[in-house]
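Limitations
The structure tokens in this dataset are predictions for the assembled complex, not deposited experimental models. Users should treat interface geometry with appropriate caution, especially where small molecules or nucleic acid strands are included. An illustrative entry is reproduced here so readers can see what is and is not provided.
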Amino acid sequence: MREPRASTDACHELSSRDGASTFRCPAASKALGRGLREALAAWILAGPSVFFLLMLYCLPVIGVFVIAFTNWQFGAATLSFVGLANFREVIADEDFRSSLRNTAIYLLIVVPGTVSLGLLIALLIEGGKSCRSFYRAIHFLPFMATMSAMAIAWEALLHPTIGLVNQTLSAIGMPAANWLRDEHTVLLALAAIGIWQNLGFAMVLFLAGLKSIPKDIYDAADVDGADLWLDRLRTVTLPMLGPVSMFVVIVVALRVFASFDTVKVLTQGGPGHASEMLLYTLYRESFEYLRAGYGAAIAVVFLAIVVTLTLVQAHLMDRKVHYQ
Amino acid sequence: MASVSIDGIVKNYGPTPVLRDVSLSIADGEFLTLLGPSGCGKSTLLRVLAGLEMQDAGSISIGGRVVDGLRPKRRDVAMVFQSYALYPHMTVAANIALPLRMRRLTAIQRLPLVGRLLPGRARIAAEIDMEVTRTAKSLDIGHLLPRKPGQLSGGQRQRVAVGRAMVRHPAVFLMDEPLSNLDSKLRVQMRAEIKELHQRLGGTFVYVTHDQAEAMTLSDRVAVMLDGELLQVAPPQDIYGDPSDRRVAEFIGSPKINILDGVMRERGLIDVAGSTLKIDAAALPGMHLSLGIRPEALHLADQGGQSTLTGSVRMIEHMGSDLFVHLDLAGPDQPLVARLPAEYGPRITPGQTLHVGIRPERVLLFTPDGRRLRGQVELSRASVMPLREAAR
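Predicted assembly:
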């Protein structure tokens, strides 16, 4: 008795909400009409997002996959399918392999460096009493700044003769280096800039994570005897930061993996191929040498690596991480 | 096991005083409850006792040893928190074992990999495991040892928190509203278990709660706190029947005690709510007094007169065994609640005029500033109808 009345009410409500619509629910098609309207409303509401998702993400990815199997030259009017030839070339290419190796080394320096320094700074800020927001702001600034502009500032700092870094080193009697032009130091210099850039991001996330640890648990640790700095860190802080750490590691790894602007502005992959990284190789092949098919094949490999990396990290860390 | 002595504790949060000169001594093996509304400073006092916060002035000794300035772990106290504060990433076994590990293993022995190789560690670890298992069994949580707190119910978490506290046999157990996160049925059950635990362990318990039922049922003595002051420290029956302050009388008891304004007419007679009560009080004629009358100290009288109060029935609450009858007395804003046996139910209707007599020995007199006025309290027997006659 009550059930049909409720659905009639809903129908009236819907039609009156539409305003223009004068649709009345006939008793027989009540349920059907309602289901249809709900589906329609759902599509209208989700429509814009679905449209842009398709246009901006799905289609380009599909496009890249298709182009990777062709010999298309960027801007050319014709193309032909070449099967797996591009991928065979990518695998055989010595330049690509050194680019991959450089990216891996860069990743292995920047991710642990960023995560551990970010955590350390977050702990220092959280543990301190004064100027917290000041420290937060100055450490977060590099993350907000445009990297290509900041890269120029770094170029000046690392200049072999007039740069502040070398002047400081020679003032204290240390040997100077041509940081960005020496194949032994260029990756280290870029990695240092990478850490500097991502530090604030990791720090802010860790600060939020630290705030969400209940104070009671620290009190319990105090009473239980885990009251020294290292004991508190091992008993409470680090385990409770597990989920945040996992997020930070994955996001920083993805950002670092896709580093481009420092390489482009500061070194163009040089000297030789010493600082060439995956995204820069992709860019150069596609837009400087105009080998779009080959570039697309690199993009597919890049995507595969990113997805694998994320899944492996998530799987490995998920077992170790405790969620509340 | 140890006695606790709290001497002149003062604590301020900025300009706000939280504890004002609190002094209290707790005997060895006593179960003392700090009772008060939220924000009265009872939890702060417990935290000062634990060493989690430092007092601004005053001194604390545990077992005759002054512990001011000592870290919590050096005070030999254990604490159960309202939120339980279990380590969510550790198993139940590891949670209970932690206080023992922290005390018995050196920092190097506790290291993840290197520690295992050190001589003596395996033996100590085995001892700790044994004690953890024994403690868990005594609390009926032996089967939960491999689980994590997230997989446990509220009651089970509570037991784990108690287990973590009792595993190292502390001198003093501190409990900060340990039952308030449980549902009411479980709360009653855990209340009984805590009482049993106290009898079994024989330790000194300091228990903080805002729930008067917990305070009344568990404690050897109750310390009632309000606005950072101890109002009264006494056994539960005295807190209820012989409060030394009007605020204590008002805080304890449900429904709340009736407080009526009265004026001393002459020696032995007090005017209250349009009636005159025959009460001998140590007060001068003309003095204003507050009369505290517990709802169960009232009974039905068949007619008005001296030492009875008359009012119209506003509302009746049936509680099963009792009736709470809300009356409006003559005079401005003088409500009164009487607790009457349930069999009067059919005879009382809202709007009806009712006469209630007062049991003489149960009237509590307070001065206008809230202090208890002790003295001869006598009501003329003749003016009060016995219960049975009134019921007829």
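Some entries come with short summary sentences. For this one: Chain B has two domains: 4-247, 256-391.
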